[in-house]
């Protein structure tokens, strides 16, 4: 009889186990679209199994193999795929952020186009040719001043576009640094909760999902690396400098060129402050922050300086040749352009508005001579230098887009592999739920059969002959 009554426990264990299976399957389906959710699996355990294997082993407890019970509910995750995903996402964020900024810069340059610097240079050159053909004409003289003004405005607009991009990147960088510090503090707090859950024996799976999400976003921002601790939490380092150490988080800060008041082009650097000690983060970190730092330190200032060199060379050449000629009054020509040597592209202007001061003649009193204007029309050096600058930018943008496309494909591949491992398949979970339901029904049938058998034995045995 003892075996018969123990069968009730076996059936009861099967009922509880399969009910847990159905609960977990339904939870998986409910969280199928939850970001960062890793599907759960119930680990079944045999009740009263032999504790250790041995030849001719005999259990101490005669009640062996009394059914099943639900053990732990584990997350289906692969630590290697998770780490690879963080790395690829950090690299992808770096490349995509860089490509987006360069694309905006290319759009602001506006080449080729009818309103860009190249078109203004062509118009400026043809204006000198027109003046050489009609040196005494007021219209031609007025036209060359107008076209020079348009050239200065086109250059200034392009320069302002680069400067504005730098300012926008600074504002964005400040926001990202604030987000990094918030995420670091949240990760440290999550590490503490995971450790407490481990000590108390409670389910840490939701906390582990949160840990993975926080570390992934930190990797996207900084390109940093996460290292799993023995208690299940994550340490996080940026450029080899510890930002999160167990339950403690440092403060990530930007120094140098990212300050709003800092001159454009000032190098950007980062520090991590922990325990009262500030440590410099090595240059070359990835992620969105790394891309922004590179843009502010190298890419954008380099383009702006190259544009300034083209403008400086053009203005110096025009001023030198203009000073070698004579204006309509017979006076030696002065500077045609003015500019600030520290910012040629942003300050280029025509030096005068009086058309009589245009030195089109090669000698005094040559009101009908336009030979100096012909020499002023030679802007080929500036046009070649500018075209080289634009071509270089175009090649850089095209390369950045190609790298981003390739990296996105690699990132998607890793994410797909991770999704196959940790993602929820509604079809699979429905199959698991139906299987658990059928097992639950079978366990119920066993219990009802046992009940019927005992009812027969207890209430009907011995009634014959009464």
Automatic annotation (TrEMBL):
Residues 421-459 form the Flagellar basal-body/hook protein C-terminal domain. SUPFAM superfamilies: Phase 1 flagellin (SSF64518). Residues 102-337 form the Flagellar hook-associated protein FlgK helical domain. Residues 8-37 form the Flagellar basal body rod protein N-terminal domain. The keyword Membrane does not apply. Transmembrane segments: none annotated. It holds the Pfam family FlgK_D1. Residues 400-427 form a coiled coil. Its main location: other. Keywords: Bacterial flagellum, Cell projection, Cilium, Coiled coil, Flagellum, Secreted. It is found in: Bacterial flagellum; Secreted. Belongs to the flagella basal body rod proteins family. PANTHER family: FLAGELLAR HOOK-ASSOCIATED PROTEIN 1 (PTHR30033). This is Flagellar hook-associated protein 1.
